Amino acid sequence: MMSEDKTVRVIITRQAGPNATPYEESFDVPYRQNMNVISALMAIRRHPVNTKGEETSAPQWEMNCLEEVCGACSMVINGNRAKPVRR
Ligand code: FES
Predict the structure, then answer these.
(1) Distance of CA 31 to CAs 28, 53, 62, Å?
(2) HSE, side-chain direction, 13 A CA sphere, residue 51
(3) What architecture is the 3-82 domain classified under in CATH?
(4) SS3 call for 81
(5) Cα 86 to ligand 1 centre (Å)
(6) Could you tell me whether strands 23-30 and 80-82 are parallel, antiparallel, or unpaired per DSSP bridges?
(7) What angle do CA 72, 60, 49 make, to 5 degrees?
């Protein structure tokens, strides 16, 4: 299988607001060699269509340096707190 045929499923826990009930939304992102969580999130932001084919709001997250320096992009990934820009 060619790499451009592969996808990565990203499941994001989302909330409409700070007091809203969280829900999960899934996205299939085309696989690219050396992709990381931030590049997958940016791909979703450019094309926010979930796995049901529904256009949805683009995900938002905090970020600043994208160089593993400031810690602004720390998030919970697969249940672990992590910086998603590791190379
Ligand atoms: S944005 Fe600075 S460490 Fe991620």
Answers:
(1) 9, 18, 23
(2) 13
(3) Roll (3.10)
(4) strand
(5) 10
(6) unpaired
(7) 140
Report d(CA 71, CA 76) in Å as an integer: 13
Dist CA 48 CA 43 (whole Å): 8
Out of 36, 61, 73, 75, mutate this one to test ligand 1's pocket (max ligand atoms within 8 Å of CB): namely: 73
What is the Cα–Cα distance from 59 to 73, expressed in whole angstroms?
Answer: 13
Write the pLDDT tens digit of every residue in 17-75.
999 999 999 999 999 999 999 999 999 999 999 999 999 999 999 999 988 889 899 98
Instruction: Tell me the one-letter amino acid at 62.
Output: E
